[in-house]
Amino acid sequence: MAGTGGVDYAAGSFRDRGARVFHAGGRVLRALSATALSDWRSIAQRPFFAHLQSRGDVVPTREVPPQEQAALRAPPWAAAVLEHPPVPFWSYPYEWCFGMLRDAALLHLRILHAALPEGVILKDASPYNVQFQGFRPLFIDIGSFTPHRADQPWTAYRQFCELMLVPLFLQAYRGIDLQVVLRGELEGLRIDQASRWFSGRDWLRPGVVAHVVLHGWLQRYAQRGTERTADTLQASGFTVALIQRNVERLRRLVERLRWQPRRTTWTDYDAAQPHVQLDRDTKAEFVRRVCAARHRKLVWDLGSNRGQYARIAAEFADTVVAMDQDHGCVELLYRDLQRRGPDNILPLRIDLANPSPALGWRGRERLRLEDRGRPELTLCLGLIHHLVIGANLPLDEVVDWFGDLTRELVLEFPCKSDPLVQRLLRNKADQYDDYSLEALESSLRPRFDVVERVRLPSGARVLLHAVAKE
Amino acid sequence: MAPLLAYFDPGAGSLLMQALLGGIGGVVVLVRYLYTCVRLRCASGPGSTESSGC
Question: Which fold does the domain A269-468 belong to in CATH?
Fold first, then answer.
């Protein structure tokens, strides 16, 4: 908290000086400047805002009474403090699948569509203002709502294109994984450079010429001029109807964007592998027994594939974070969750050999994966051989990572005789002397007690339930 | 009401693009905008440092 006057500010909340998030006693609070407070009070009373809250589009918010504020260590400049319920598990756009980013973009457009007729706009258009509760997107940045005069343009249009529309185009039209783009550029792809990612043929695709090519060209052209473009536009007769028309067109465009994941080894994993099918029921029963033993707040399912075991865990936990490195699997799981629930599984695209690091200003703006909440139980099914043999991670280091991460672990260990392990080894030198059940148990021993082990019917795989030593 | 200013640069080109995307009404705004720019540039002269907004 150095340099913050003792206020525990949220690491990513510093850009908008008038509405900063801070924490006190586990509570999520937002300090408002006098101007932001005046905006908030005016906006909170409008019908569109109540409507968005009743739909669950916008985070529930209450103004903390002044007599409570003294105990909260609020910043001295705060004219008022708002309180929001905490998000179960924080995620970032570079971990979302295509459908999640698309839904975040549509949520922005839905909010604008509702707010503009009542003289309110969003001052920014960042997907970081959205968090997912299970598969439901939730707009969390109350400070982004601001009064809007009918002759003012939408200042956040460029941000909308750079952080949402262009990455969606790249995924839908070019098959370039949006996570790669967004993790590399936290502010998105600069619009004056974005057209270089598209081929001439893509110019025929809906939206590319207008929102990427022409937009980029205008941005390069207009950069040569001086400031006050907004003032001159206002004087030239700009009206809110132009924004509304643009928002409506963008909504139709984004709704039509489609990305169909290719069928991969992972998307068909269960159906394609006879021995995996053979083991499935025993594995499900084992996972159910461990999960049902007690209620847990947070469970991670690593290498979740299509979420078969995350679904079992979700019956007994508040939140399950289902992580897989295969974008197609995450996308299919997200669609499946939207169709038939449950609503407490958060699907994320994570490569565990290269998990999300701390990013942004001072490496604190976006938290590393492990710093956003440690799971009480971690499922690691059908994964360890990919980490050790596929990604060359030393087995004892993987176990050490589990030791730092989780209190309980359910781990499936495929022995070297397993057909899928053999497949991983077929074109590689077998340098993996550390890859054995004995080596695994020996690595677990200093930090975990193995309380149950079961050999699966295929004969080449063992399931372990390990509990961290006190 | 204060002018709408974000904590980031909205981009002059992006502001103009919105007029273009607004259909016929937007094109009229853009033509007026360009006319204002030309008029201000002529009025300010080649050596002027005053910002024209264009």
Answer: Rossmann fold (3.40.50)
